[in-house]
Design brief:
The protein has helices spanning 16-29, 46-52, 79-84, 95-100, 105-117, 130-134, 138-150, 179-196, 199-204, 215-222, 239-248, and strands spanning 5-9, 36-40, 59-60, 89-92, 121-126, 161-165, 206-210, 229-232. It is an alpha/beta fold. The structure holds 2-phosphoglycolic acid.
Length: 249
């Protein structure tokens, strides 16, 4: 069976002191849950975050990872560097990486392959832009993002994959896909994976929804059968909101 997951993507927010403060508040307020709870602070605070969370079930994950093993890639972080400090999950393909840092499907495919080869669990993000949805092209766009980056993976790779559908028009905008729109797309994603791989893989992969998930809409979104949790941006920066979203799952 697939896991329920609530992950907080902190993006470029919180210095080290703020990271520690938020994590200690989160740890203190963390409800009992069977869901996996994850936080992705910025790189420079990953090590201190792991220290802050010693003994906690909250997992620390990375926001990004480079595909090369090592070398002349100024500003980048390798799989080995993550593993070495105790990080075994990385977000790959976030729409902000695609939009502001030129990450194409081709680059993302390399990152996914490199991560999986190193036993790093991948949280692969994808989703359509507003124009795609308005023109009714959203299913095609999502399918091609999945196909270009993931369809050549071995079936065995899927045990280390998490998918995060994040319609770009809903990220940080306060606008959310309706629970019905989320369910419709998640069911389509599962069907697409079933066709490209098999039904077992499709049924076992967790598919998260991301894009303006808040305490006020989380219950309804998470109640949909193909929505296995959320990737949370803004609301993950406020302990009470993140905790309320964890309770919603
Ligand atoms: P948001 O961000 O919750 O602030 O919309 C979600 C994300 O970018 O993962």
């Amino acid at each position: 069976m697939r896991n329920k997951i609530v992950a907080g993507n902190w993006k470029m927010n919180n210095n080290q002191a703020e990271t520690s403060a938020l994590l200690s508040e989160l740890s203190a307020k963390l409800p009992d849950t069977e869901a996996e709870v994850m936080v992705a602070p910025t790189y420079i605070n990953l090590v201190s975050a792991i220290g802050d969370l010693e003994g906690s079930t909250i997992q620390v994950i990375a926001q990004n990872m480079h595909f090369a093993e090592s070398g002349a890639y100024t500003g980048e972080i390798s799989a080995d560097m993550l593993l070495n400090v105790g990080i075994d999950t990385a977000i790959i393909g976030h729409s902000e990486r695609r939009a502001y840092f030129g990450e194409t499907d081709e680059i993302l495919k390399k990152k996914v392959v490199a991560a999986l080869q190193n036993n790093i669990r991948v949280m692969f993000c994808f989703g359509e832009e507003l124009e795609d949805r308005k023109s009714g092209n959203h299913f095609n766009v999502v399918k091609s993002q999945l196909k270009n980056a993931l369809f050549e993976l071995d079936k065995s790779a899927w045990k280390n994959m998490i998918l995060a559908y994040e319609p770009v028009w809903a990220i940080g905008t306060g606008e959310t896909a309706s629970p019905e729109q989320a369910q419709e797309m998640h069911a389509f994603i599962r069907e697409t994976i079933a066709e490209a791989f098999d039904v077992n893989i499709a049924n076992n992969v967790s598919i998260l929804y991301g894009g303006s998930v808040k305490p006020g809409n989380a219950v309804e979104i998470f109640s949909k059968p193909d929505v296995d949790g959320g990737l949370i941006g803004g609301a993950a920066l406020v302990a009470d909101d993140f905790v309320a979203i964890i309770k919603a799952i």
